[in-house]
Every structure is written in structure tokens, then in C-alpha cells.
């Protein structure tokens, strides 16, 4: 049986990960990055 | 709104000492203090840059600085003030006050809190290095882009730009970590009985601010990363010759930059939401509408970024949308101002220093907001764009709206933090010199801009001499007045009249139930909250 403190700690960490993942998604979607990475890779292959 | 508490157990007495106390601290009060000290240091550095700029502009011609150094100072003034002073100061207030206000023993993630702060000195060092490296052999050219970092100029600048990009990444990581911590604390750590709609307004403003930061800081990080790739890895995100578009960077930057204005403003609005009721001895008028207005400001503020870019050649439909959206923001902002005035209406008001600042903020921020409505109108902005009018406008928004709000908060909570009352007479002298100096500095800049003086130039036409001289004199008064602020803070920390737990007669909320200064550990047993008045 977990104590309420442990339960709260777990809840806090879970929410922090969710928010962190959200920030990461915002970061990635801000990039027209992948498209240009492919262009760079494509031109390097050529 | 006020609360009664049933328990306040502060029996825990594990107080670390020496440098370990600060370096390894997981205590929200200590970390709050560190944030505030860092912000104060940066305030003086950014202020010194501003005073050099105004000293140069005292007369037409080039007197003290060369053009490159002038541009460097313009850039570092903005970056130091925004990222170094205002954001960390607001985070300092949040760290100190949020757990005390919601009855939590600490922030939800105390070790991450330590990390959030200690990234900052590293970031601050990188930021300062970015201004300094060009003075060393092989250091390249000085940063001359302004805080907006627009390419292609930012692609051409020397290695100082790489230091700056790294600094922005670190600052962004610190901000996002701090925001996550604040959101988790506010959502999970409130004392039993404190529902969201009983949460103190400062906490609400920080909840919205933290969400805003998580939404926009990664976009800036993405933008500057692409800039780094363009500089070093042969990409052409922002290079038209390689199929990229420099305007893309402007969109990414302002998608961050405009909400950033609200990131700077909202915590101070939260501070005012406590100060005005306290010194009016009335509850805040329209609590629910304040919450709604704040969410509306943040939401609309996210989708109007391109009003900073009217002159780039957008379609008529696009500029119309951004113009209308921007003007609509004045409705919720006006509602907040109305609520503050309605709170004061027929209140038993007294004018201690925090309240003096609050009243001054309402007047000057409203003035800055109105010049913002002028700038939101596309055909008018075509004339005002990149003029000193814009400089006057945003300083009237950000100084009262953000910095004076933080000053008000420091005076309001300083007795709680230190256990001593500050010197009210000196503080009032500081208020009057500071606010007068501010107005002498920035009010004439409206006229300069309207008469056609561009911003970000080291030299100007002799027709602008008089107003520039007045503005520079004001800037010296304004700048040096902050030494008095420093003296008052040091004096209060060192001693003075003992502060009671409640400090201010009209103060309500959990933070006033703990002694002044609060013990190292507070609310280890959550208080039980019962709303007794709304």
C-alpha cells in the first residue's frame, strides 16, 4: 500500500512528464526542420 | 477572498547552512531568493547598457560609442532585461509565494526547481559572453541584430551569435522546467479545500503564464536552432538564395515574442490583484471575470503575433485579421483595469509604497496600452513602424506592466520575506524619483517617433535634439534611482522594525498566516481551508 506522499509524488512526476512531452511536441512541430533535413541529406547523397 | 486555517505545523528544523544551502537547495524560499538576486544583478547590468545608450543619444553626432558597440548595447539591454531580469524576478516571486499561498510544503518537484535556477547563471554567463567575445582577438563582429535576431544579419554575425543561441537554449530549458514545476504545483499541491476558483489570483496568473511559456518557448528554441543550422551546417531555412525565407524566422520569433509580452505582464497583474484589495481593504472586484479575462488575453495573444510584421508585405486579409485580433485584446485587458478601479472604488484606501506603484501602474500601463491600439491599426503602423514611438510604447507597457509590478510585489512581500518593515519614507522617495524619471525618459520619445526619428540609430537629425536631451536626463534620474532601491532592500534585510505575520492590515490569504519571516519549512501539515468571505 503506497502512502499518500508516494502517491502524490508519482502523480506530480507523471504530470511533469506529460507537460515535458507536450513542450517537446511544440518544439518539433515548430520546425520545417525534417523537410529541410531530407533536402540536405538528399543533396549530400547526390 | 480570505481563508481560515486550522493547522500550521512548522516543527521541522533541518536548516542547511553555508554555500551548500544555496547550491544544493531544494527549498522554495531559498530558490526564490536566488532568482530574485540573479534578477537584481541583471537589472543593474541591463540598466547600465540603457544608460550608455541614452548618454550617447544626449546630443546628435557620435560622442561616446561607435555604431557597432551601440547596436551591441541595444541588443544586450533588451536580452538582459527580458530574459535576465524580468522573467527570473517573476519566477522568484512565484517560488517564494506560490507554496505559501496554496498551503503546499514546497514546489512539487524541488530538485528540478534547483536545476531550473542553476541553469540560469550558466545561461547568463553565455549571454554576457555573447556581448563580450568580440572584444577578444578572433572574437568576430559584435551582435548588431537587436533582440529579434532577424536573419540574414544574424547569420552573418560572428561567433558571438553562437554564444547567444546557446544562451537562449539554456534560458528556454530553465523557463520550461520552471513552468512545468509551477503547473504541477498549482494543479496537484493545493491544500485540501482550495478549489481552482479559490486559488489566489497571483497563482492563477502564474498558471496561465506557465502554460504560455510551455507553448511558445519551444518555438523560439526551434527558430534559433534553425538559425544555428543556417550558420554552420549549410541549411537554408532563412536564406532566400537557397530556397528558404527570412520572413519565416520573423513568424517563428514573434509567435514566441508576442506571447512573451504577456509572460512578462501577467505575473505583475497577479501582484496587483493582491496589492489593490489589501490597500483598498476590499475583496478583489470580479475574481471570476479576472480569471476569464486573463485566459482570454493569453489565448488571443497567441494568435496575433504578426502585428509586429505589418510591413513585410502580408495579404490584406492577413493584416486585417491580425489588426482586428490585436485590437480585441484591449477588451479583456480593459476589463482587468476596470476590475482594479472597481476594487478601489469606495475602498478605505491607504497609499503605502506598493499601492502607490499599483495606482501608477494602472495609469501608465493604460497609456501604454492605448498607444498599442494606435500601433495595431495597420495604416497608422506603416508610419510609426521602427520609430521611437514604438520604443516609447513598449516601455510604457513593460516598465509599468512588468517591472513596476515586480517592484510593487517586492515592497509588498519584503516584510514577509525578511521579517522587517522596509523604510516607508525612503521607499516613497524611491517611488517618486523612479516614476518621474521614467516619464521624463519615455514620454518625449512619443513625440520623437511621431516626428520621424527612427529607433536603433546612434545618430540623429538635429531637429530631434531637445526631446532627446530631455529623455537622456530622465534616463539618468531613472537609472540612478535604482541604487536607492538597492539600499532600501539591503537596509531591510539587515534590520528594521519587526514585521508581524499579517504585515498589512488588509492583507488576506494563507501567506499572511505564517510568521514573518516564515520558518524554513512551512505547511508541512496542509492547512484546512474554509472560505469565509468572497
TrEMBL record, chain B:
One of its GO terms (biological process) is respiratory electron transport chain. It is a multi-pass membrane protein. It catalyses: 4 Fe(II)-[cytochrome c] + O2 + 8 H(+)(in) = 4 Fe(III)-[cytochrome c] + 2 H2O + 4 H(+)(out). Keywords: Cell membrane, Copper, Electron transport, Heme, Iron, Membrane, Metal-binding, Oxidoreductase, Respiratory chain, Translocase, Transmembrane, Transmembrane helix, Transport. It is found in: Cell membrane; Membrane. Residues 13-530 form the Cytochrome oxidase subunit I profile domain. Pathway: Energy metabolism; oxidative phosphorylation. One of its GO terms (molecular function) is oxidoreductase activity. Its EC number is 7.1.1.9. The keyword Membrane applies. The chain crosses the membrane at residues 34-53, 73-94, 115-136, 163-189, 201-229, 261-279, 291-308, 320-342, 354-378, 390-414, 426-447, 467-490. PROSITE patterns: COX1, COX1_CUB. The keyword Electron transport applies. InterPro entries: Cyt_c_oxase-like_su1_dom (IPR023616), Cyt_c_oxase-like_su1_sf (IPR036927), Cyt_C_Oxase_1 (IPR000883), Cyt_c_Oxase_su1_BS (IPR023615), Cyt_c_oxase_su1_dom (IPR033944), Cyt_c_oxidase_su1_bac (IPR014241). One of its GO terms (cellular component) is plasma membrane. It comes from the Bacteria. Cytochrome c oxidase is the component of the respiratory chain that catalyzes the reduction of oxygen to water. Subunits 1-3 form the functional core of the enzyme complex. CO I is the catalytic subunit of the enzyme. Electrons originating in cytochrome c are transferred via the copper A center of subunit 2 and heme A of subunit 1 to the bimetallic center formed by heme A3 and copper B. Belongs to the heme-copper respiratory oxidase family. This is Cytochrome c oxidase subunit 1. It comes from Sedimenticola thiotaurini. The gene is ctaD.
Amino acid at each position: 500500500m503506497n502512502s499518500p506522499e508516494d502517491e502524490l509524488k508519482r502523480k506530480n512526476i507523471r504530470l511533469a512528464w506529460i507537460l515535458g512531452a507536450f513542450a517537446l511536441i511544440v518544439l518539433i512541430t515548430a520546425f520545417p526542420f525534417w523537410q529541410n533535413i531530407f533536402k540536405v541529406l538528399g543533396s549530400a547523397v547526390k | 477572498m480570505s481563508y481560515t486555517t486550522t493547522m500550521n505545523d512548522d516543527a521541522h528544523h533541518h536548516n542547511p547552512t553555508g554555500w551548500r544551502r544555496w547550491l544544493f537547495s531544494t527549498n522554495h524560499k531559498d530558490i526564490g531568493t536566488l532568482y530574485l538576486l540573479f534578477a537584481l544583478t541583471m537589472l543593474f547590468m541591463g540598466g547600465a547598457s540603457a544608460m550608455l545608450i541614452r548618454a550617447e543619444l544626449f546630443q546628435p553626432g557620435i560622442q561616446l560609442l561607435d555604431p557597432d558597440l551601440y547596436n551591441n548595447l541595444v541588443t544586450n539591454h533588451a536580452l538582459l532585461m527580458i530574459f535576465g531580469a524580468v522573467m527570473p524576478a517573476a519566477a522568484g516571486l512565484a517560488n517564494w509565494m506560490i507554496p505559501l499561498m496554496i498551503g503546499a510544503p514546497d514546489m512539487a518537484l524541488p530538485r528540478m526547481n534547483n536545476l531550473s535556477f542553476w541553469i540560469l547563471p550558466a545561461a547568463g554567463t553565455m549571454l554576457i559572453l555573447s556581448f563580450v567575445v568580440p572584444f577578444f582577438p578572433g572574437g568576430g563582429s559584435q551582435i548588431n541584430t537587436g533582440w529579434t535576431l532577424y536573419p540574414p544579419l544574424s547569420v552573418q554575425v560572428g561567433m558571438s551569435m553562437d554564444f547567444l543561441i546557446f544562451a537562449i537554449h539554456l534560458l528556454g530549458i530553465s523557463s520550461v522546467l520552471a513552468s512545468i514545476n509551477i503547473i504541477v504545483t498549482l494543479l496537484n499541491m493545493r491544500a485540501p479545500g482550495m478549489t481552482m476558483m479559490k486559488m489566489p489570483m497571483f497563482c492563477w496568473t502564474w498558471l496561465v503564464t506557465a502554460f504560455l511559456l510551455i507553448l511558445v518557448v519551444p518555438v523560439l528554441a526551434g527558430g534559433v536552432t534553425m538559425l544555428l543550422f543556417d550558420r554552420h551546417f549549410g541549411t537554408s531555412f532563412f536564406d532566400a538564395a537557397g530556397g528558404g525565407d527570412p520572413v519565416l524566422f520573423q513568424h517563428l520569433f514573434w509567435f514566441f515574442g508576442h506571447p512573451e509580452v504577456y509572460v512578462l505582464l501577467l505575473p505583475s497583474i497577479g501582484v496587483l490583484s493582491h496589492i489593490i484589495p489589501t490597500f483598498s481593504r476590499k475583496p478583489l472586484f470580479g475574481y471570476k471575470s479576472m480569471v476569464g479575462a486573463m485566459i482570454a488575453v493569453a489565448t488571443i495573444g497567441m494568435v496575433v503575433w504578426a502585428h509586429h510584421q505589418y510591413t513585410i508585405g502580408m495579404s490584406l486579409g492577413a493584416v486585417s485579421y491580425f489588426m482586428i485580433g490585436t485590437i480585441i485584446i484591449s477588451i479583456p485587458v480593459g476589463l482587468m483595469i476596470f476590475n482594479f478601479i472597481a476594487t478601489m472604488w469606495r475602498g478605505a484606501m491607504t497609499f503605502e509604497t506598493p499601492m502607490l506603484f499599483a495606482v501608477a501602474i494602472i495609469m501608465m500601463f493604460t497609456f501604454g496600452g492605448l498607444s498599442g491600439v494606435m500601433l495595431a491599426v495597420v495604416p497608422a503602423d506603416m508610419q510609426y513602424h521602427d520609430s521611437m514611438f514604438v520604443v516609447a510604447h513598449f516601455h510604457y507597457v513593460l516598465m509599468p506592466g512588468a517591472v513596476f509590478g515586480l517592484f510593487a510585489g517586492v515592497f509588498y512581500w519584503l516584510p514577509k520575506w525578511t521579517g522587517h518593515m522596509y523604510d516607508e519614507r525612503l521607499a516613497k522617495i524611491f517611488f517618486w524619483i523612479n516614476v518621474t524619471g521614467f516619464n521624463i525618459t519615455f514620454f518625449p520619445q512619443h513625440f520623437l517617433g511621431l516626428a520621424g526619428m527612427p529607433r536603433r540609430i546612434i545618430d540623429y537629425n538635429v531637429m530631434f535634439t531637445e526631446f532627446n536631451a530631455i529623455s537622456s536626463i530622465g534616463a539618468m534620474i531613472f537609472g540612478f534611482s535604482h541604487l536607492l532601491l538597492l539600499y532600501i532592500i539591503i537596509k531591510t534585510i539587515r534590520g528594521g522594525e519587526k514585521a508581524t505575520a499579517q504585515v498589512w492590515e488588509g492583507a488576506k490569504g494563507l501567506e499572511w498566516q505564517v510568521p514573518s519571516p516564515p520558518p524554513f519549512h512551512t505547511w508541512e501539515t496542509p492547512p484546512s481551508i474554509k472560505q469565509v468571505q468572497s
